Amino acid sequence: MGQDRNSGNKGDQLKHCLLAETLGNCGDWSNITYAETHAGAGVYSQTKQEEEGATHIADLRADILSVGKLDPSSAGSRYTNLLEDWWQAESNQKLYPGSVCQALLQTASMNENCGIEEVQVRVTEACPHTHERLTEALAPFGYQARHDAFQHNLDWLTENDDLFLLIDPFTYTTNRDALDIGHIDLETLSKFVSACLNKSRCIVGFWCAMGRKQPEGKTLQTQFNSELRQLAERQDALFRYFSYGQYSIAWIGIAGGRPAIEQIPRKANWKRTWLEKVIKESE
């Protein structure tokens, strides 16, 4: 299955909407390092997606254009308005930006409006062809991705303070050999989160999906997120958890990163938006 097949689907909407909300809450940070473990292709093609029999990007674009620009105070406005701006460009009409590009578009705006002085980008992608596409997508921003599997780059990805780390594998696994093909096991996830817990200001997001042919998926999802919650609470970090169907994303606000997680809109706010069926928070 190609990189474009699932782009812009409900799992992406869950991840990217909350990425935009959370990153936008970091406007008082003077420096930020955006790090991501599974960076993907950077930009995804509606044409290629439709050749694979899916219409997620076209459907999402229609939704965004029907909604139009939202008031900045509305839940979901950062994601909605970013995509509305993106699709205004003729060259972007049939393209969807992935999480790295969305983060860079947003931090560029924050640099202009909020005073962020420096943005570092540290992202990894293991697949050679996907890394080639990512390199092309990041070139206009002036950044490069490391061509390597994420588990070999723990120190590099988590080195800096003022860190915004997104861990977003394909799905859960108990097989460490599967880490090289985009999955994650609990031991590796715990190592990444633990490496961040003593920072003075940090945010960690963990997005994952249950495989459709993974009967133990729900058990693993519960186990992984329970472990994250315990790690966070032992360090007095703030943990919030959102899900939609087979997809879930957990956010951890560490020390000075707590306010950005606290400020993610609550349930009542999402109920008044076009995203109300996608953004579901669990206590």
From TrEMBL:
Domain of life: Bacteria
Matching SUPFAM superfamilies: S-adenosyl-L-methionine-dependent methyltransferases
Cited InterPro entries: SAM-dependent_MTases_sf (IPR029063)
UniProt name for this protein: Uncharacterized protein
Annotated organism of origin: Blastopirellula sediminis
